[in-house]
Design goal:
Helix content is 44%, strand content 6%. The protein is an alpha/beta fold and 399 residues long. Keywords: Membrane, Transmembrane, Transmembrane helix.
């Protein structure tokens, strides 16, 4: 098929895996798919169209940046490459199966709310009645982006050793694998027109993509490798995209085991101290109720002549009684200690971050105590304005 090619040395698709203009860039009959010759555009106009398909700004080291041209590959990689999941590829089988994700209508049938998230590392991660889905970036549907930014520019000697063994995948190839994997997952998510309607309603795909265009796009994507299915395409995608839906609780468990109990996980389980205390105290209350059930059964057993004279049962009853007294108290103490550590740790971390941020910005916004005597005297002191100069005198801050 036109517009699709492979490099024999690597087996990785190096150009656009589809041929049609999905974003209505050409005049075409949507029922037949026959495209009219596109309007002639200059190189500058094509660059402007591609540039406008990227995010308006990026947050880099807590600062806003708005590139004046197509962003660097490092920024595109942050948007397409789930590095956190690729670090635990060998453990992903614990969180999901290596099969395509189920369509969007089926996700709703399972009672999962489709939640939009631009984070690629939690794309198709589900838990607590939600499934996170990353909208397909508009530039991934632009053939120009694939040709200019996802084509490997390494020489044959750089791609392979003298013995013909492939070396590590370069950055552009890696991005190509991630982009192709994301497209394949969307081909599985949007199968029926009902899925397409859900995707439009959730803003998962650009609004100017029509259903006939999408059907043609999927056909070209799956048939681009000369096959009637996308099975062989999985040899060319990044490891994470071989797996479909991933369980959030198991990913958080993997993160906790690898990084420690204070790890934040892939998605924060508790959004406040109240939810943290409520969830953990519920576990203690549930455990205490189970202990009371066992104590009641032991009390009934001690009332029988057979168990009342049983020394082993007497010893077990004595030990469990002591445990039932000390166990909940110890659990509450541990919860209080962890709760206190979490509060003070976060306060210290937040204060340190504020100091570092203040130093980086070259200013402060904390109001120092003023001499109360000099602060009296009416409007001339600025009391009525609600504004004062900061400690370095650079800008007014709200009181």
């Amino acid at each position: 098929m036109a517009g699709v090619a492979t490099i024999a040395q690597t087996g990785i698709h190096q150009v656009v895996p589809f041929a049609s203009d999905v974003l209505a860039g050409t005049r075409e009959n949507e029922s037949t798919g026959i495209s009219a010759p596109p309007n002639e555009t200059t190189q500058e106009e094509q660059d402007a169209v591609l540039y406008d398909q990227f995010p308006a700004s990026y947050i880099i080291e807590n600062d806003l940046h708005a590139p004046l041209k197509v962003p660097d590959l490092s920024l595109i990689e942050d948007e397409l490459n789930p590095k956190r999941l690729h670090k635990i590829t060998s453990l992903l089988w614990l969180a999901g199966r290596p099969v395509p994700p189920r369509p969007l209508h089926y996700q709703q049938l399972l009672g999962r709310e489709v939640v939009v998230s631009e984070r690629i590392d939690i794309h198709l991660v589900w838990g607590q009645g939600r499934i996170f889905v990353k909208p397909i970036p508009r530039y991934l549907l632009n053939p120009r982006f694939w040709r200019d930014h996802l084509v490997c520019r390494c020489t044959p000697s750089e791609r392979n050793t003298p013995e013909g063994v492939p070396v590590c995948v370069c950055g552009r190839q890696r991005l190509h694998q991630c982009a192709l994997g994301l497209l394949l997952q969307y081909a599985a998510l949007i199968v029926h027109e009902s899925d397409f309607t859900i995707a439009l309603d959730k803003h998962l795909i650009p609004y100017d993509v029509s259903w006939p265009r999408w059907r043609r796009f999927v056909r070209e994507l799956l048939h681009g490798n000369g096959s009637e299915s996308g099975r062989t395409l999985y040899a060319d995608v990044a490891e994470r995209f071989i797996y479909g839906e991933l369980r959030l609780n198991r990913l958080n468990l993997i993160e906790m085991v690898l990084r420690g109990p204070l790890s934040r996980g892939f998605v924060a389980v508790w959004d406040s101290y109240g939810s943290f205390y409520r969830d953990n105290s519920a576990v203690i209350i549930g455990g205490t109720a189970y202990i009371l059930l066992i104590l009641s059964a032991m009390q009934v057993g001690l009332g029988t002549s057979r168990l009342a004279d049983n020394d082993a049962f007497q010893s077990v009853s004595y030990g469990f009684t002591v445990f039932s007294i000390l166990g909940p108290l110890a659990a509450i103490a541990v919860l209080f200690i962890v709760f206190s550590i979490a509060i003070f740790y976060n306060l210290a971390r937040t204060r340190q971050f504020e100091k570092n941020r203040s130093k980086k910005l070259g200013r402060t916004w904390r109001i120092e105590k003023r001499n109360t005597a000099s602060g009296q005297g009416g409007a001339g002191t600025g009391q009525g304005s609600g504004m004062e100069m900061d400690s370095v005198g650079k800008a007014p801050v709200v009181v």
